[in-house]
């Protein structure tokens, strides 16, 4: 019974890792991006938004003509922003 459980668990973990690796590839996640009018944004960058306040960039995705940022704001929680259209500024650390 223990060997069967270990085998099933192993297969499950492989499937989960493959799925998330594939999703990262499909979503075109990047570690940084040069964004027109904003500069270079990195995962982990601190930004400020005129409505949501200060937040940390968790993910960056390149779309056809823009960049999507997943940002965790201190007060407002997780938000998805189109970088080129959002009223944001990179905070200097």
Number of helices: 1
Q: Name the shape in a single word.
A: elongated
Please describe the biggest sheet, giving its number of strands, its sense, and whether it closes into a barrel. 6 strands, antiparallel
Q: Give the distance, in angstroms, between the N- and C-terminal Cα atoms.
A: 54 Å
Unreliable stretches covering 5 or more consecutive residues? none
Short description:
With about 90 residues, the chain is an alpha+beta fold. Helix content is about 30%, strand content about 45%. Strand 6 (about 65-75) and strand 7 form a beta hairpin.
Structure characteristics:
28% helix, Thrombin, subunit H, 93 residues, alpha+beta, 43% strand, elongated, 8 strands, single chain
3D architecture notes:
The structure is a single chain. With 93 residues, the protein is an alpha+beta fold. It folds into two domains: 29 residues; 63 residues, Thrombin, subunit H (Beta Barrel), CATH 2.40.10. Helix content is 28%, strand content 43%. Strands 1, 4, 5, 6, 7 and 8 form a six-stranded antiparallel sheet that branches. A two-stranded antiparallel ribbon has the order 2-3. The longest helix has 26 residues.
